[in-house]
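Letters spell out the chain; backbone shape is given numerically. Take this protein:
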Amino acid sequence: MSIQHGIKVPAHSEVKLGPEELLDREKQKQTLKFIRGNFLEIIVSIEQDINHLIEKFLSITDEKVKLIFKERILLHRGMNLSWKSEFFKSLIEKKETLPKERLDILVIALDNLISERNKWAHGTIHYKQEENRKLQSYLEYINSKGILSELKLTNEYFDKLNEDLEKLEALLREIEKKLT
């Protein structure tokens, strides 16, 4: 079974796909597969950082206890990124690890991370042909209100996504320094 990236055709319109448009679609498809995989890999890395910081917050020094904590809690299937994020935010808030304004930035960054993760992990990619006959890629997903939504995948979107991930990673490094 292969992953399909369909082309949506609006009612009462024609899609004109010549060899150039088909080649462009194939290039976009390969690029977007790479981007999705890379983005999900970054999220796994961030989740590992959060796991590490949770362990540091809890000051687990006994290696046997640390292993049990990892296996039974941090790496357990039932403990998803959303749960870990909420737990992590609570630790930072209760221990006053960050000033209020930095904590607010972290909360927004983690919420955005989870939202973007869900879009990319569960959403489907499709294309629409624009006036210039070029195919534009879109990500279709269910938003946090349960409504089918669509996101135009542009360079600006990806630049903002990268910027947000870099800010989050910087905040995690800041927290790490405060815990050492």
